[in-house]
Design goal:
402 residues, alpha+beta, Elongation Factor Tu (Ef-tu), domain 3, Helix Hairpins, 3 domains, 4-stranded antiparallel β-sheet, 21 strands
């Protein structure tokens, strides 16, 4: 065999071996890659809620008689002290003595209610003054750098809560005074007895607001205490959400809330006002018993934005548990428990030089879309999203073309 033929055969053999090596060599694993970047991180508790009025007033018949047809309808505005119904008394002479004693007892009870409401107003006024003094003290200490900003925020919220309690107490005193006036008017009608000509007795609205429900629309004879209509001030509307008790512990009073899916444009802002102390058992749609608790949310957006909302409307609430402005974020699917680790350590695959590198990371929080990383990654790092089973530390990878 000539040297030339031997060279050709050798070259062909080398090429054939190289082709076999290339054919059977492992291919880079195609993966989906994302970039770690700085952004805003939020961990939230999402739940359905509904609006409600913390205080609603049922206007009842203060005496037995014939009520005239009520012209008001649901949604009509009423002023405090406005006449909402008229009742013509139907008094029996045989019951005058007993009726006078009962009416007198109601007047005495009304006086006691006014006194108690006045005491609560005084107590809440003292609470507001104490909260204002504490806030002024905290502001001075904050300027000198002796307290944390969170303490100052807490004192501001305490002042707002004390002012709300005072406003509610003033409203209760106004309601008690209204009931006392009604009781005195009824006592005056009864003392006139059957000798006085029958005339209409005016039933008045206890507060300024709107008519929620008309319970007695037609003219009819009613007994003492018959509900006639409901009145409420929709400007005091709040949202109630039933949260799992484990979630409620993460949303103390003052937690910011975003109100979505309420039917109007945009998102409303709110704040947790109170977490009720007593929980209850509720069966979920899957038949699982859950311990839940009511969380009360006050609306902080301007009234003009949510004036279309009414009592009992369903809304979606998103309670912001954790918020960080400049957090290092990666897709939540890029982070997974570190294999063979017993301390709940987390890791991610980072693409370096065309290979996957298993990198331990410190996870500060995660939500449905993103994971907040505090250690292990730097901005701009390429991480593998949904790493397939074929990806191991050191395996060659190739970014999948989208």
């Amino acid at each position: 065999m000539s040297p030339r033929n031997r060279w050709l055969i050798g070259t062909a053999a080398v090429a054939f071996v190289a082709l076999l090596a290339w054919a059977f060599a492992p291919r880079p694993v195609e993966v989906e890659v994302a970039t770690a970047a700085l952004g805003r991180f939020e961990a939230t508790v999402d739940e359905d809620g509904k609006t409600r009025l913390p205080d609603r007033y049922v206007v009842s018949a203060p005496l037995a008689g014939r009520v005239a047809r009520i012209a008001l309808r649901e949604g009509d505005p009423v002023e405090a002290g406005a006449v909402v119904a008229t009742i013509t008394p139907l008094l029996s002479p045989l019951l005058d003595d007993r009726s006078v004693r009962e009416a007198g007892a109601r007047v005495e009870g009304g006086q006691a209610q006014v006194a108690r409401a006045g005491a609560r107003v005084d107590r809440t006024r003292v609470g507001v003054e104490q909260a204002r003094i504490e806030l002024a003290r905290s502001e001075q200490l904050a300027r000198d750098g002796f307290i944390a900003p969170t303490k100052l925020d807490s004192d501001r919220l305490s002042l707002q809560a004390a002012q709300k309690e005072h406003d509610a107490a003033v409203q209760e005193r106004r309601m008690a005074q209204h009931e006392l006036e009604q009781a005195r008017a009824v006592l005056g009608v009864i003392r006139q007895g059957g000798s006085a000509p029958a005339r209409g007795f005016a039933v008045r609205a206890p507060i300024a607001g709107q008519v929620l429900r008309v319970l007695q629309t037609s003219e009819a004879t009613v007994v003492l205490g018959t509900p006639l209509l409901q009145v409420g001030d929709l400007g005091r509307l709040e949202v109630i959400a039933e949260l799992l008790t484990t979630d409620a512990l993460r949303t103390p009073p003052g937690t910011p809330v975003r109100i979505e899916r309420w039917g109007g444009a945009g998102t409303l802002e709110g704040r947790v006002r109170r977490v009720e102390p007593a929980g209850f058992t509720k069966v979920s749609a899957l038949g699982v018993e859950e311990q839940r608790v009511n969380v009360l949310i006050e609306l902080t957006s301007p009234r003009a934005q949510w004036q279309a909302l009414g009592d009992g409307f369903r809304v979606g609430v998103r309670l912001v548990v954790t918020a960080k402005a400049d957090a290092l974020l990666v897709p939540a699917s890029a982070v997974f428990p570190l294999p063979e680790a017993d301390d709940h350590a987390m890791a991610a695959f980072v693409v370096e030089g065309g290979r996957a590198k298993l990198t331990p990371v410190t996870l500060a929080g995660r939500n449905g879309q993103s994971a907040w990383i505090t250690q292990g990654l730097t901005p701009g790092a390429k991480v593998i999203v949904y790493p397939p089973a074929a990806v191991r530390d050191g395996v060659r990878v190739k970014a999948r073309k989208v």
